[in-house]
Amino acid sequence: MHTILKLPKKRLTTAGNLFLFYLRVNALHSLQKLFWCINGYFCKGVMKKIFLLVNLCFAVCFNRHQKLFAQDSTRIRISLLTCSPGEELYASFGHSALRVIDSNAVTDIIYNYGTFDFDDPDFYSKFVRGKLFYALSIERPEDFLYSYHAENRSVTEQVLDIAQPEALAIKHFLAENIKEEKRWYKYDFVRDNCTTRLRDILVKLKKPAPQLPPVMPLDFTFRNAIHYYLDATQNYWSKLGIDLLLGSRMDVKMTAAEQQFLPDNLMIALDSTKNFNYVNVKQNLYTAVNYHSKIKWFRPIIFFLLIAFLWLLASFSKNKTMQVLLKWLDGILFFITGLLGCLFIFMWWGTDHFMTKDNYNMLWAIPFNCVAAFYTGKNKKGKSYFLFTSFVYTLLVLSWFFLPQQLNIALLPFGILLMVRSYLIFKSK
User: Fold this and answer.
1) Which helix (H) or strand (E) holds 262?
2) Residue 63 burial (CB count, 10 A)
3) Predicted TM-score (pTM) of this structure
4) Is 158 helix (H, G, I), strand (E, B) or coil?
5) 146 and 262 in one domain?
6) Would residue 292 count as lying in a domain?
7) Of 174, 237, 260, 275, which is most buried by a Cβ count within 10 Å?
8) Residues 314 and 191 in one domain
9) Could you tell me which residue, 381 or 139, shows the higher pLDDT?
10) 309 in a structural domain
11) What is the three-class DSSP state of 192?
12) Is residue 99 scored above 80 in pLDDT?
């Protein structure tokens, strides 16, 4: 959801898309009428048959567009499209969009809140600082479905049971918000994303407002929900990265409404509304091919266990060369953890990201380690600091599972390594 979530970029003008779509549909109809007139007034014999054949081709093309609108008798039809997760990190949480069909205007438009300008020269700077703006854009259904077919991601459509005045209100709301001065919004992975925007529309513009039930256990946190998806796609290293950057605010229990920041959760909640049936028809527009994925054995927990074991084993070696090497390795170890601590401070205080604040990973990634790294090989200087860090790391390891923030389990061997190395540096002569 993805944010961390990256979705297809769009830079097409809204008005141009609507105009071209209208011309495409209506031009077929006009040309069809023209051919009937030519055939009736001017054509005889063989030419009459040729024009009848051409006209039949136009009729087939036009009826492809008309068939969609003949599925129901209502003027406006609102559908929620839910796309399954993909393999890439930005696609790991799925995607949502709204489809609006107007049979009178002969339009079929998909509204997508997951668009950003990747060509912005300050894109990466804005992304890191939490100042990246996403936008509402429109797409044709065939283009939308083609992109997800190419990524082998399922697309499910829920046709909503909405009265025409409410459907018209939704259409007008989207038409108003597609304007250039209103289409941009400050993206937040959890609180304001492509799915929560649609949820707010469907709840606020429907009377009475639907009561959407929780679809995950009530003791689930935001981090639990994200882990569920990342474990399912075996994105273990991405899971580690997210656990490093996102602080304790991710460990708050979600309300029923907050659970709907994930596309699948909103889809399931609409299927299970308490006060009325919100979904009229549910259908699969595309079903992904289920390929058997190999189990990924190279995971962070295995990597850090191996590193910690070899490092600690070398710590008790009497070989002088090994002891010199360990001093250099200790310097690198503490310098890297110090740099990570500086990064966490920046993400906490220097950005607008809500979920990167209150990060307890700073208990092991201490920023002062950057300076202490240059004293790991000294006999006297920095001794008291490493006594302090050994005490801190000991408390951290003992309280690992009781902290207000769920730290990634793969980092526990790393914490033990820091604890032991700090103490041995302090005790060294």
Assistant:
1) none
2) 11
3) 0.79
4) strand
5) yes
6) no
7) 260
8) no
9) 139
10) yes
11) strand
12) yes
DSSP structure class, residue 89 = G
User: Tokens at residue 165, please?
Assistant: 């005045």
CB-CB contact of 198 with 78 (8 Å): no
Q: d(Cα 296, Cα 423) in Å, to the nearest integer? A: 35
Cα–Cα distance, 418 to 398 (Å, whole number): 13
Q: Mean pLDDT over residues 253-263, rounded?
A: 95
Amino acid at 49: K
For residue 36, give Cα distances in angstroms to 32, 50, 56, 267, 299.
Answer: 6, 12, 10, 46, 68
Domain that holds residue 312: 300-427
- Token look-up 């083609």 returns 146
What confidence tier does 9 reach under pLDDT thresholds 50, 70, 90? very low
Q: What is the separation of C-alpha 219 from the centre of its chain, rounded to a whole number of angstroms?
A: 22
Distances (CA, A) of 135 to 83, 170, 183, 187, 244: 18, 17, 5, 9, 28
Q: How far is CA 345 from the centre of its chain?
A: 24
Is 417 a member of any domain? yes
Q: What are the tokens at 319?
A: 């070989």
Q: Give CA–CA dist 403/407, Å, rounded.
A: 8
Q: Are 135 and 268 contained in the same domain?
A: yes
Q: What is the DSSP string of 96-149?
A: EEEEEEETTTTEEEEEEEEE--TT-TTHHHHHHHT-PEEEEEEE-HHHHHHHHH
Res 156 pLDDT > 50:
yes
Residue 291 phi, psi (nearest 5): -90, 140
In this structure, is residue 372 part of a structural domain? yes
Residue identified by tokens 């207000």 is 404
